[in-house]
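Researcher: I'd like a structural prediction for the single chain below. Treat it as a standalone chain; there are no partners to consider.
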Amino acid sequence: MSFDSPNFNSNMEKNLSGKKIAIVRSLWNKNITDLLLQSATNYLKSTGLNDGDILIKNVPGSMELVYGSNEMIEKEKVDGVIALGCIIKGETDHDQYISNAVSNGLVSVCLKYSKPVIFGVLTTNNLNQAIDRCGGKHGDKGIESAKSLIYLLCD
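Model: Treating it as a single chain, here is the predicted structure.
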């Protein structure tokens, strides 16, 4: 079943009834994560979710997305999490260590609770590439992440 299949779209609202979703957003590279958050939230609302169904938690950086996602599932009892961040390559390999740790950490949270945790973290070489991936010429990772979560919750 694809995102655009009639069955997916027609069953979406009924399957989302009573669901709570968390978006955990890194404040590092906030200009980018603001855009990702806005597009993800707008898409979720377009599916019939209300403001009260969408919980937003801000964390300082991408590394803290793991803790924030774990906390939202454990304490807020959400049905799924979208982790949004932006890691831009610098002069060292620091970005690779952070990216690997965050991706592995989010997988661990997903498996620990058997709930979807979506990796909506941009990993780019520069700011222009990040902009291109949050509504620019390479799509919108915020919307893609929200669609992935909704797809898993409506399955």
